[in-house]
Specification:
By secondary structure, the protein is of the alpha+beta class. Helix content is 29%, strand content 36%. Helix 7 (564-583) runs antiparallel to helix 9.
């Protein structure tokens, strides 16, 4: 009988396995056409600035999510074997490639080990595209060798384009004359500089470091190597990918200035600290002058020759790598003679306040003490002040919250520490005034601020009786019988259960696919309706009077308002826009020489081309050497109207 039962079980198991294989294959065949093509797979990684550090060194740990459409609830692990010097610091961004959007998000910490040994840091968790993910674990070895290294909070290498804008006037320095040395000209008109707000500071006193690219040339630039800012806590004040640009005058010449990196640095250790250089790879575009310009007897004629690019010929490129000069910052140690008891490294100017979430409670009730430090300075690295707790009180840990503006120097805001404690006995208690010491770099002295003392009363603990069991709770015997019945039902109806599960899953995917198809069809209809509306709007616009679509309408208004510089800038932009739309030339080829060749090929006569060049020269000359005459400006505007009309008609 037992043998028969065992054979029956084996037969049923074989049948179940065969059935599952069949169902699985069918499931794959049915769902395979429905599976969407996978885009670049999302990645969640843990990155350490160093795998081996000394006991007094610092390490940056960063948890990075890449190639995701949606990132939520990015949660870091705990660091029981390390002291958190700085963090969490968040960074994020997005990119669109071939119409597909992906996001980047990261959270990083600067840590210092509490002891020597080998420590494993668990991965962080996040919901990535609706699915839970965990990054990889990482092991940090802490040895006796101190390398003096620190976390570098710099971003990963990124592309920072500095493109030529054809609708803005230029200096003309991109024309390479026969007697000019290309390397020397590039050196004078394209360079990288590092500037700091101060070269001497105390430990914990912030300075600002700005890496800038200065240019008067047509070039594309890419940051090849960001500076390592070892020895500092780093807080970026400008998004490195934003390509923030300004105009600065150097030696009497205006330069377009691109901020590569601007960061607030808080030194962690005394000594001479080097700010390493940034490396930028550049491709510079020159127009080589094919013949020597004729000698002119007037300055005005020389200006016209320069703006007209007389003799400009083929385009040549130069690839050059630039770097800034390294710079030493002297970090002074904080005075040791008059250092106050309880000082924990705070540098700046601060005040302190304390409060309890309740002043009357029962014994064994949890109470929260909130201690808020407000002011300006190195707020992120401040530790929780020590509290002199009264007797018969249990402490259950401390948490910190920050509300800091890190874009100003020094940083301003507040940091709140929450202490959770529990009184054990009845009575009246007092938490003494809590002191907080800091160093003020303005007065070169230590100062102490104190909170007010806090009183609270504890009454007799409330009795917590166990709640009665619900009437519908089953006895142990009933539970065992119930579970036994469930197991028997599953064994007897296993094939039916798998069939129902498979069909339910298949039905769900088919329903989901059908829903997506309907939504796609609805979206296509909506897009078609929008396209028809756009076409109708364009047709209606075409039927409007010509003055409504006047490309020089804004130019005329600037002239009426007396904004003469804006008039020439807008006039110059309108002409280049008309040529750009008519000739369909790429930006790198959009210059007067190529335009003249294209217009001659389209049948333009020399007189009209000369008129066009004269208008462009007038715009550029008045932008760089202003000499405004309203009468001449009106005549130039009329000539431009005729030229733009001719461009659009021919």
């Amino acid at each position: 009988m037992v043998g028969y039962a065992m054979n029956f079980v084996r037969i049923n198991l074989r049948a179940i396995v065969s059935f599952l294989r069949f169902q699985f294959v069918g499931f794959i065949l049915v769902l395979w056409p429905l599976a969407p093509a996978k885009a670049q797979q999302a990645k969640f990684t843990t990155v350490a600035s160093s795998k081996e550090i000394g006991r007094q060194d610092y390490v940056q740990i960063e948890f990075i999510v890449e190639n995701a459409k949606q990132i939520e609830h990015l949660t870091p692990p705990a660091f029981p074997d390390f002291h958190v010097v700085e963090g969490p610091m968040q960074s994020s961004g997005m990119s669109i490639v071939n119409g597909s959007m992906s996001q980047y998000k990261g959270i990083s910490f600067v840590l210092q080990p509490n002891k020597m040994g080998s420590f494993t840091i668990p991965g962080a968790t996040a919901d990535v595209d609706g699915k839970p993910m965990r990054s990889n674990t990482i092991t940090i070895a802490v040895t006796t060798n101190n390398n003096g290294n620190s976390a570098n909070a710099g971003p990963a290498t990124s592309y920072s384009p500095m493109p030529y804008d054809p609708f803005l006037p230029e200096s003309g320095d991109y024309v390479l004359k026969p007697n000019e040395n290309m390397a020397e000209k590039t050196k004078k008109n394209l360079f990288v500089k590092l500037q700091v707000s101060k070269s001497t500071c105390y430990v914990g006193e912030p300075i600002v470091a700005s890496y800038k690219l200065y240019s008067r040339l047509r070039s594309e630039s890419k940051v090849a190597k960001y500076p390592s800012l070892n020895g500092f806590s780093v807080y970026d004040m400008v998004d490195p990918g934003s390509d923030a640009s300004t105009v600065e005058t150097v030696n009497g010449k205006p330069f377009s200035v691109h901020i590569i990196r601007k960061a607030q640095l808080i030194p962690l250790q005394p000594g001479q600290v080097e700010l390493s250089p940034v490396e930028v790879e550049n491709t510079v575009h020159y127009l080589k002058q094919s013949k020597k310009p004729h000698q002119s007897s007037s300055l005005l004629q020389d200006l016209f020759d320069q703006f007209g690019e007389e003799g400009a010929g083929e385009e040549i490129q130069q690839h050059v790598t630039l770097d800034s000069k390294p710079l030493l910052v002297t970090v002074k140690p904080l005075p040791a003679d008059d250092k106050l008891t309880g000082f924990n490294g705070a540098v700046g100017h601060f005040s302190i306040g304390a409060a309890l979430d309740k002043k009357n409670m029962a014994a064994q009730d949890a109470v929260t003490l909130k201690l808020t430090i407000t002011g300006s300075g190195n707020l992120p690295v401040i530790d929780a002040p020590q509290v002199n707790w009264p007797a018969n009180v249990d402490i259950y840990g401390t948490t910190a919250k920050e509300d800091i503006d890190k874009t100003v120097v020094p940083m301003k805001g507040s940091k709140t520490f929450e202490y959770v404690f529990m009184p054990k006995a009845v009575g009246s208690y007092t938490i003494p005034a809590i002191g907080f010491s800091y160093f003020d770099p303005v007065s070169d002295s230590y100062k102490t601020v104190k909170s007010q003392a806090l009183d609270f009363n504890v009454s007799i603990a409330k009795k917590h009786s166990s709640p009665p069991l619900p009437k519908n709770v089953l006895s142990a015997t009933q539970n065992e019988n119930f579970l036994s019945n469930i197991k028997s039902f599953i064994v007897e109806h296993l094939e039916l259960i798998f069939s129902v599960a498979f069909l339910s899953t298949l039905s769900f995917f088919l329903w989901k696919h059908n829903k997506k198809s309907l939504e796609k069809e609805k979206t296509q209809k909506h897009t078609a309706a929008l396209e028809n509306a756009r076409i109708e709007a364009e047709m209606a616009k075409a039927k409007l009077p010509a003055e409504v679509a006047d490309p020089l309408l804004r130019t005329k208004r600037l002239l009426e308002n007396g904004d003469y510089k804006g008039f020439y800038a807008e006039l110059n932009r309108a002409i280049w826009a008309a040529l750009y739309n008519k000739l369909n030339l790429p930006a790198s080829e959009l210059n007067k020489h190529n335009i003249s060749l294209r217009l001659k090929a389209k049948g333009w006569d020399e007189t009209t081309i000369c008129q066009l060049e004269n208008i462009l020269n007038q715009c550029e000359m008045n932008l760089y050497t202003p000499g405004y005459n309203p009468a001449d400006m009106g005549a130039t505007l009329q000539s431009t109207e005729r030229i733009i009309k001719y461009i659009n008609e021919v």
